Amino acid sequence: DTGVSQDPRHKITKRGQNVTFRCDPISEHNRLYWYRQTLGQGPEFLTYFQNEAQLEKSRLLSDRFSAERPKGSFSTLEIQRTEQGDSAMYLCASSFGTSHNEQFFGPGTRLTVL
Amino acid sequence: EDQVTQSPEALRLQEGESSSLNCSYTVSGLRGLFWYRQDPGKGPEFLFTLYSAGEEKEKERLKATLTKKESFLHITAPKPEDSATYLCAVRGATNKLIFGTGTLLAVQP
Lengths: 114, 109
Description:
The complex is a heterodimer. Chain A is an all-beta fold. Helix content of chain A is 0%, strand content 49%. Chain A is built from no helices and eleven strands. In chain A, the strands form two sheets. In chain A, strands 2, 4, 5, 6, 9, 10 and 11 form a seven-stranded mixed beta sheet that branches. A four-stranded antiparallel beta sheet of chain A has the order 1-3-8-7, with no helix packed on it. Helix content of chain B is 0%, strand content 57%.
């Protein structure tokens, strides 16, 4: 399977703990996006990378959130001092080209903060 | 502010009963309207991209159309396997996708 992959698929943590998620985009896709989705809502944009550069961040991305894409390939999203409100599905997507065309999504990481 | 509104929130159809889903949008400088399908517990699956009013795209039983204010996803003779949440999103001047809340479609045999 050469689609977008995410790990882990599920994460349960206690409030106050740190968590890190990984996303591997479709190979040769130079753009990578993180979204968050809560029940009954559409995905909400968090941040976007072009190669290794983080070019856009949402106001939703508080100081407790940090994302990296060190070599322009996989990306990690870390949440520090998790809160119950962080419980959501975290989705990664990737795209190729210069015009931000179709974004292809991974299966997501379901985070539950107890 | 860019915004997407989808209707209805939920739709129940009998197998073979055709219908349409609506996506109304306001965006500064539309650079693409996207339709995705999402199954429970999974990531969105890309269906279509539309760029300009009058454009239409088809895939199997699905057909997407676009005007200057809204898009429709027409489902012809649906089957139970078409049951899913259908998401509409737009991309404007920024690089992010703005999603609606989706339409939950249930097709009964």
